[in-house]
Amino acid sequence: MRLIIQKDYDKVSQWAANYVARAILDFKPAKNKPFILGLPTGSSPLGMYAELIKIYKKGIISFKNIITFNMDEYVGLPEDHTESYHYFMWNNFFSHIDIPKENVNILDGNAKNLDAECALYEEKINAAGGINLFIGGIGPDGHIAFNEPGSSLGSLTRVKTLTNDTIIANSRFFDNDVTKVPKTALTVGVKTVLDADEVLVIISGHGKARALYKVVEEGVNHMWTVSALQTHPKGIIVCDDASTVELKVGTVNYFKDIEASHLDPATLLK
Ligand code: GLP
To answer: Is there a contact between 193 and 152 (Cβ–Cβ < 8 Å)?
Structure first.
């Protein structure tokens, strides 16, 4: 696993966006060879989306031959609700780039048969040839997508009940009213994420420091589902200084030292 430590949230966002742009350019997507991108919601990736839009507007990358699969969606929230992940994605990213609507895949939390919707999603990912790069965030309890503590590390897309911790954390988007937060969600599984060729997780702020420590310095554990990234051949965490405060000084120095010899993806974009 690579651990990229940046000064602050803005630098994390720039690094992530440059990395994604570089991956797309290297892949050279075409109509018959689309790049398959897994995408998250939440506040962590917002800066990356803003940076990617800038890179797109400069004409460096296009999303015409990119197919996206989002990680998760609340159950029962109308698609046009301002807190639905459909709304989030179109508002913050898709409507600002040239991605064709039919290339966007987001789980339907209002499907009549939720289990069938989840099975179909896995089929669609497989039919597309699998995900080239899956980007994720992390909950304060170490979850990826909505794979709450105790989720099987071999899980696929399914319906999940949200924990109280997540409902409280996400209530900030629902007028701080926990009763307004949906109690269930559809989510890709830990295995769905790990099956991607590459996984990039964005972690920022003091609030995620304990989770980062658990994920990097402790073992693979279903109680901190992002820790499964340790088993991935190409897993990257990009984080800011604030989120590293629970790590040992030695760990921080170690990863900073190794990364010093890696080229910054910003340089590679020029
Ligand atoms: C939700 C999402 C996750 C996201 C997490 C953290 O639970 N399902 O995908 O990583 O929130 O969100 P934030 O980045 O806002 O802290």
So the answer is: no
Residue owning the nearest CA to atom 2 of ligand 1: 145
70 lines ligand 1 (CB under 6 A): no
SS3 136: strand
Cα–Cα distance for residue pair 241/206, rounded to 1 Å: 9
Sort strands 235-240 and 133-136 into parallel, antiparallel or unpaired. unpaired
Cα 48 to middle of ligand 1, angstroms: 14
pLDDT in tens, the chain (270 residues): 999 999 999 999 999 999 999 999 999 999 999 999 999 999 999 999 999 999 999 999 999 999 999 999 999 999 999 999 999 999 999 999 999 999 999 999 999 999 999 999 999 999 999 999 999 999 999 999 999 999 999 999 999 999 998 899 899 999 999 999 999 999 999 999 999 999 999 999 999 999 999 999 999 999 999 999 999 999 999 999 999 999 999 999 999 999 988 878 887 676
How does DSSP classify residue 147?
B
- Angle 46-57/85-92 helices, nearest 10 degrees? 40
The active-site residue out of 72, 73, 117, 240 is 72
> Which residues make Cβ contacts (< 8 Å) with residue 8, sequence separation at least 6?
240, 241, 242
Q: Which among 269, 270, 226, 266 is positioned nearest to 3, based on CA atoms?
A: 226
Cβ of residue 181 lying under 6 Å from some atom of ligand 1: no
**What is the value of pTM for the model shown?**
0.96
CB of residue 38 inside a 6 A radius of ligand 1 = no
